Amino acid sequence: MNNEHISYTPGTSNAPVIMLHGTGGDENDLLPIANVLFPEQPKIGIRGRLMEQGLTRYFAHHPDGSFDQTSLENETQWLLATIAEVIETYQLDDESVTVLGYSNGANMALYAALTGRTFFKTAILLHPMLVSDDFSDDIADDVNLWASYGDNDPIVTPENFASLVSEAEKRYFNLSTFKSNMGHAITKEEILDAAQWLHSQQ
Ligand code: MLT
């Protein structure tokens, strides 16, 4: 485990929050939001180990701009193994994992879930999208997902988000969406909505 790119913030419970950053981010980016949403939970940030055009990422693009599916799969396996290792190191509960992911990081958590590897019970996915059409048919009706989408997002198309909703529903994920007319950036309004949704889940 390369601790250099992992941040750990202790909490008073043993239910970990895994923070997965957006393109160009790092393991500490989402901590201010995680502190608001999950004040009591221990927080683990994991930095994507790839670098493209000077920006950190969890998986690569091909030169034509399409997503490299081999990299996506390899890096997902790496991420899942790393998460398992950190959870074990800090003796946290691997049955009570929450994900807080933004963009590239949210896409990783969603891809893992749609390929039958739901390592979390709850996920707050900020501006996620489908990055693969390689799905498993696994049903997981105990997975709670909250996802945000902006009508003016230059990265996530309406078609992509609609497919995401449909794939989540097919698997009986409990999905709640927050839609706005904003773009790809994180807004205060969506964080407030996510906070309310988390509260309603308790
Ligand atoms: C991705 O690469 O996962 C998406 O395009 C979002 C992003 O740019 O990070």
Automatic annotation (TrEMBL):
SUPFAM superfamilies linked to this entry: alpha/beta-Hydrolases
| Record Pfam families | Abhydrolase_2
Where does the sequence pass through the membrane?
A: none
Q: Which UniProt keywords apply?
A: Hydrolase
Looking up Gene3D superfamilies in the UniProt record yields: alpha/beta hydrolase
Tell me yes or no: is Lyase among this UniProt entry's keywords: no
Domain of life from the UniProt record: Bacteria
Q: Which residues form a coiled coil?
A: none
Which residues belong to any copy of the Phospholipase/carboxylesterase/thioesterase domain? 62-198
**InterPro entries, A to Z:** AB_hydrolase_fold (IPR029058), PLipase/COase/thioEstase (IPR003140)
Keyword Hydrolase annotated: yes
| The protein's name | Alpha/beta hydrolase
The lineage, from the top, is: Bacteria, Bacillati, Bacillota, Bacilli, Lactobacillales
